[in-house]
Amino acid sequence: MFQFFKQIREFYRENKKSTFWVYITLRVLVIICLVLQLLQGNWDSVFLCVLTLILFTLPYLIDRRLHISLPNVLEAIILLFIFSAEILGEIQNFYGIFHYWDTILHTLNGFLCAAIGFSMIDILNQNEKLSFHLSPIFVAIVAFCFSMTIGVLWEFFEFGADTLLQTDMQKDRIVSSISSVALNPDEKNIPVKIEDIEKTMIYGNDAQGNAMVTTIQNGYLDIGIIDTMKDLLVNFIGALVFSILGLFYIKNRNKYKFAENFIPKLRRKKA
What we know:
Helix content is about 60%, strand content about 10%. It has about 270 residues and is mainly alpha-helical. The chain has 3 domains: about 1-100; about 100-170 and about 225-265; about 175-220, no CATH class. Strand 5 and strand 6 (about 210-215) form a beta hairpin. The longest helix has 29 residues, at about 135-165.
């Protein structure tokens, strides 16, 4: 294991000097966080720290196993994204402290996934052994669809975790108005609208089976649908932005070289 991490360190020193200190700094911060969570006995957080360290090895494995080189800017963003989502978002509760933290990450995820989808098709397009060649507009469409598919699959994962494991990955929120046909007293397909909800009362039992009453002030509790739709919407925006950027890039690679900072490329094997 130590030999493996030594190989990664040498890889960054030799090939990724500009992202070397980003990798080292983030890894040290995660290890510090891991030790603190161990001392506090927060085993869920310990698992997230270990998972983060494993995810940090992905750029190295992609380069060595798949011979795909990630641009330094893209790699730094990926490392920061992992750190922001797992360590800051989950363990340090940035999702709760900063209302738009989750929105920012989902927007960035849409952008990054579109870049990955774009690069896969672009690499295939440049392969002389393949007989097909997609036009720039179709490459952009595939990149967009790839990103949206990843976004939808992630929302499936959040829903599954919340349903089976009783987590709250979808982040419920309080909403002050409602419009629903379920509230129509005549059971007609006409929504009943309620504005400025003052409070709702929830009657149930706690984990020990004791009766309890929970009062929600200034609204009712939405159970994740708003968060899901918001995540998909910002994923859509991120995917659309990169797909348009990628479309211009593939039409004129010399003029839009900025896009190369986000597009993985097939690494030429040494002779």
